[in-house]
Each structure stands twice: as structure tokens, then as C-alpha cells.
Design goal:
Layout (H helix, E strand, L loop, with lengths): L9 H56 L4 H31 L8 H4 L4 H43 L3 H16 L3 H19 L6 E2 H15 L8 E7 L5 E2 L5 H10 L9 E9 L2 E9 L2 H6 L3 H14 L4 E5 L4 E9 L2
Parallel strand pairs: 2-4
Antiparallel strand pairs: 1-3, 4-5, 5-7, 6-7
Helix pairs in contact: 1-2, 1-4, 2-4, 5-6, 6-7
């Protein structure tokens, strides 16, 4: 059985590195210092190295340096190295006295300061360590994206088996039904348009916003069939028809409304949607009456997957908020225009 199917992850890789460091220090000291002394020295020093490295890359660097607090970062690094060096020296001396029964002279603060310079090199290595983690993280994300892309292409190929046969059949059914029930024929036409969107438009990087809106409107009309008393939908639109956006970016919110925010037995299903282009951004808002099922389920995999996709597309240059306070469930999305 393979431990890692696609190679070690970031955490597993770090575990391997620290095991290698432990073994390297221990076996390099073993011939001169013996088993117990080498073990104590290895544990104390490896622990201090880990504290310096992770203290810098997880706390000091992101909290201070990345927020451009350079002076504060520099002072805290010096203080951090002094504290870890003094603690490392104190721990070494105490353990030697307790386990090895080695008598040492009274320990002064200046004696403990001799352990500080060794931490400077570890601090420099922590920067290299951080760069390495960032590289492997990016590499892993790239591999995951490529894997997802390949899987999506495979699924698309599977879904494209004889698509023209399916569309032609739907068109034939449409003309047959239209003669006796024009409204039902219109719904068949909307279903055909939705399926054509999935096949022709969704694989693209960007699609016209009008195409995306038409897809959403077709979806809502088909969903309304399942609602006993229908639903009142107010869809405000103000954008340049030539604008292009990534496909299926807005659908998650609309889908959540009909999955979790509609009471099929109620006569008061009010849905408000707006899609507005302004100041180089596209603003998408939805609002509907909040149900108990929507409170517990609407922030599930759909929103999580959408957040990941938005991060890959726009980095941090987007806003996504969900407001569940009060009687309404509101969703808001702001993305930059391409």
C-alpha cells in the first residue's frame, strides 16, 4: 500500500525534514558524547530550532513584516532570538545536571547569552524554510488545479456523448408539445438552452454576462415549476452587454435560494436579485426569506468551493459576504471586471 499516492504533502515533508535533522544531530554527537548526552542535546536543540523557525514564519513574519511593520519586526526578532537562546542554554544546563549529574558553576545571564548567536543562523534558515514551504504549497496547488482540470475535461467529454442527438430530440419534442401546450413547450426550450450552456459555454474561461444571466433566468423558470404557488422574482440588471465573466460564478447563490430558501407551500416566496456594473466592479446581490434549512445548510460545500474558485481567479481582490441576521438571507459578491 502506498503511503502517499501523489507524493508527500507539505506536512509530511516537514515531518521527514525534522526526522532527518534529529537523526543527523544525534548520530554526529553519539561517538563523542555517548547515548544519553547526545539524546538530550538533540532534543533541546531541535526543539529550539523548531521554535525559532515556526515562530518566525507563522507569527512574526506574517503579523509584522508582511504588514510592513519593519522596525517592530526587527526588534521582536532580536528579542525572540535572545529569549530562545537563553531558554535553550538554561534547559541544556538543567538537563545535564539532572540526568548526567554534571556539576556546573552557577549560571549567569551573560553565560546564557552565549547560546544566542547560534539562533541567528537558524533564523536565516527559517526564511529559506518559509520560501521552500511556499514553493511546495504553490506546486501542490498547481498539481491539484491541473488534476481538477483534467477531471473536469474528462467529465465534459463524458457529457458530450452525442449532444446533437439530444438537442435535436428536445427540439422535436418542443415542436410536438407547442401545438397543444405552448407554455410547456417554452419550458422544454429553456431546458434545452440550459443543457446547451453546460456543453458549449461552461468549459470556456469567460462568457458574455448576457449568456450567464440567460442561463440563470432559465434555471429559475424551471425551478418555479416545483413551487406550488410560484415565486415573485425581482431581478435588477445594469451592466454593459459586452461584459464577460467566468461561467457559473453567480449560480451558487441562486441555487442556494431554491434549494434552501423556498417554502413550497407558502404564497410569499419573494426573491430579490441584482447584478450591477459600477466603478470597474460587478456587484451581485441576492435576498430571500430565511428558512431554518437555509441557516444550517446554505454555507456548505457550494459556498466553500466558490470561495476557492474566486481566490484562484482574483486572489484577494474580491468580496464575498453572507448575512443571516434578521428574517432575510442576503448574499453579496463583488468582483473586478476582466
Amino acid at each position: 500500500m502506498k503511503i502517499w499516492r501523489h507524493g508527500p504533502g507539505i506536512v509530511q515533508l516537514q515531518v521527514l525534514i525534522w526526522l532527518a535533522v534529529l537523526l543527523l544531530i544525534f548520530f554526529s554527537l553519539l561517538p563523542m558524547d555517548g547515548f544519553l548526552k547526545s539524546e538530550l542535546y538533540t532534543i533541546v536543540n531541535t526543539a529550539s530550532y523548531a521554535i525559532i523557525i515556526y515562530g518566525n514564519i507563522l507569527v512574526l513574519y506574517p503579523v509584522f513584516y508582511q504588514k510592513r511593520k519593519f522596525v517592530c519586526y526587527g526588534l521582536l526578532v532580536v528579542l525572540f532570538l535572545v529569549i530562545t537562546g537563553v531558554l535553550r542554554g538554561y534547559a541544556t544546563i538543567v538537563l545535564y545536571r539532572h540526568f548526567l549529574l554534571i556539576k556546573t558553576v552557577p549560571v549567569s545571564f551573560f553565560t546564557l547569552l552565549n547560546y544566542v548567536p547560534g539562533g541567528i543562523l537558524i533564523y536565516i534558515l527559517s526564511l529559506v524554510f518559509r520560501i521552500s514551504i511556499a514553493y511546495f504549497t504553490l506546486k501542490q496547488q498547481t498539481e491539484e488545479i491541473m488534476l481538477q482540470k483534467s477531471q473536469a475535461e474528462l467529465n465534459l467529454l463524458k457529457s458530450q456523448v452525442q449532444p446533437h442527438f439530444l438537442f435535436n430530440t428536445l427540439n422535436n419534442i418542443y415542436y410536438k408539445v407547442y401545438k397543444v401546450d405552448p407554455r410547456s413547450a417554452g419550458l422544454i426550450e429553456r431546458l434545452s438552452d440550459i443543457m446547451r450552456y453546460f456543453v458549449d459555454e461552461s468549459p470556456k474561461d469567460v462568457v458574455p454576462v448576457t449568456t450567464e444571466v440567460e442561463f440563470i433566468e432559465n434555471y429559475m423558470e424551471l425551478e418555479k415549476i416545483r413551487i406550488r404557488h410560484g415565486a415573485v422574482i425581482d431581478f435588477e440588471k445594469a451592466y454593459n452587454p459586452e461584459l464577460r465573466i467566468p461561467p457559473m460564478l453567480l449560480m451558487t447563490f441562486v441555487e442556494n435560494i431554491f434549494k434552501h430558501g423556498i417554502d413550497k407551500s407558502s404564497k410569499k416566496n419573494q426573491i430579490t436579485i441584482s447584478l450591477i456594473q459600477k466603478d470597474g466592479y460587478l456587484f451581485f446581490k441576492t435576498s430571500n426569506r430565511k428558512l431554518r434549512s437555509m441557516t444550517s445548510q446554505a454555507n456548505g460545500f457550494g459556498i466553500a468551493n466558490l470561495t476557492k474558485r474566486l481566490t484562484m481567479l482574483y486572489g484577494s481582490n474580491f468580496e464575498l459576504t453572507i448575512d443571516k441576521t434578521g428574517e432575510l438571507y442576503r448574499a453579496f459578491l463583488k468582483i473586478p471586471l476582466l
